């Protein structure tokens, strides 16, 4: 029997637009409320460190604010960079956030790829896979609320105890990553798998790993970059803004381990406003966006729950205009995806 289909809005990163003095983290509250009113099922934030545009470094802090501002939305980290977090502190912060949200947290975890982030936190990137494989069972044990001992790559200690235990019997953990080891790790220990970038090349590589059921409830979530517009000037503004941001991030990714090398940045093909459509999963008026996103959903295995995260491009920096665009997505796009 086919799984459920749900739709989230994201990824909110709080990046500072040109000419703005401070990162607009507070806009997330307005947008999350707009997403809830529009009928979205979830709201997602992400994490990076040391970025000149103020990219959000503390996703769980922001999710705590959103927990107080919303009533129904699932709140997700997509993703928190697991090796950069102290395992015991991560277990505690997630448990508190689960209480604040009334049991609405999904803890999405990834390994990251930026060398400067690993160096800043004093983490050896060669150990990142072993850390993640150990971290997920550590979190599940910690969330029982009972005292325990642990000895593994992620953490070692005796007489440990995380209180309070989460409001639920454990918090859903979804894992990202594109390498074969990451795919098998998600199948083995996670409650879901996150595809951070839904390029065809990435989907062709990762989806065969989930052709067969894992034997438990499981969600496959896909981030889709969406530009909803029927105004050429509006679309051009969005493309210019995305090109500037993507240029900076491809410079950070160059020569590194982003996307397991599947879609490595091409230094011979600079990102320009005229070339960014290759990054989009859906662009155009509502009908075209719905059709393309339905094709994307239909690629996902029928045995799993499917969660689509709409990474919406906003041509305008004004949060209220962005909220109006979210309302339009709820009115014109969401019904066609369900």
Which short descriptors sum up this protein?
338 residues, alpha/beta, TIM Barrel, eight-stranded parallel barrel, two-stranded antiparallel sheet, 11 helices, 11 strands, 19% strand, globular, Luciferase-like_sf
Q: Can you characterise this structure?
A:
The protein is of the alpha/beta class and 338 residues long. The protein has a single domain, classed as Luciferase-like domain (TIM Barrel, Alpha-Beta Barrel). Helix content is 38%, strand content 19%. The chain is built from eleven helices and eleven strands. The strands form two sheets. An eight-stranded parallel β-barrel has the order 1-2-3-4-7-8-9-11, surrounded by six helices. A two-stranded antiparallel ribbon has the order 5-6. The two termini are 16 Å apart. The mean pLDDT is 92. One of its GO terms (molecular function) is oxidoreductase activity, acting on paired donors, with incorporation or reduction of molecular oxygen. This is LLM class flavin-dependent oxidoreductase. InterPro entries: Bact_Lucif_Oxidored, Lucif-like_OxRdtase_Rv2161c, Luciferase-like_dom, Luciferase-like_sf. Pfam families: Bac_luciferase.
